[in-house]
Predict the structure.
Amino acid sequence: MTNAASAYILPPHLEDDLAKVHAYWKGLIRGQASDMPYWDDVKLTDLPGLEGRLMLVAAFTRPERFRFDIVGRDVSARYGKALAGSFADEIDTHDPLHFFQSQASATVEGHAPTYYRTSDYSRLLLPLWGDGHISMLLGAVAWL
């Protein structure tokens, strides 16, 4: 039986832009004390040229919810409206957010990066630590 985390497993090779975001995320990990970076170390301006395709998403527990805090211009334009401040369970799920809640949940539960791909785009979600739990996700979208 496939679990949710394995449904979103990273492929051997990521698209170039997603690989850059993944490498940036890995570079923020503070030594061997943690297996993921702290959310307050992330600076989207450290990824020049990709800001429009990035997202910072707050992760809440009990109940589990995901709020889009920062959403790049390209993601919002492709979606069709501004998403910042919206919760994932309150929006229509369509390009580029198909299966977003499921993927975000798998990222939090698995404490690991997740990947989703359609024929039009791929999406990477990366967990970020803060306040004693995964409190944010760094997301990136690449159009194919």
Summary: The chain has one domain: 4-34+52-143. The mean pLDDT is 94. The domain at 4-34+52-143 is CATH 3.30.450.20 (Beta-Lactamase).
